[in-house]
Design a protein that fits this description.
single chain; alpha+beta; three-stranded antiparallel β-sheet; PH-domain like; four-stranded mixed β-sheet
Amino acid sequence: MSGEWVWIFVIPLALGVVNLLIWFRTGYRVDGEELVVHYGPITFKIPIRKIERVDFIKSPFVGPALSVDRMGITYSTTKFLTVSPRDQEGFLQALKELNPHLIVNRP
């Protein structure tokens, strides 16, 4: 087998591993006063007090969300992140307990 044929197997295998990591390691939790977002091998930590707005949206675009029913989180004035927790109302309530000034936009 020549070196060219090896890449035919290595690249799809690597992409498959990355997809599995994203699928099985996407999640969100409130940890103290931070929102911790896991997206495959990437972890974001967002201070909940810096979250300004939560919008309920439907979006197929890429982000740390496995559903098109998402919550768009705007924090630190210009930063935006989408999440899709299973219990959106419970998740929102947990955020509002730590940040009562949070603006919520529903469709």
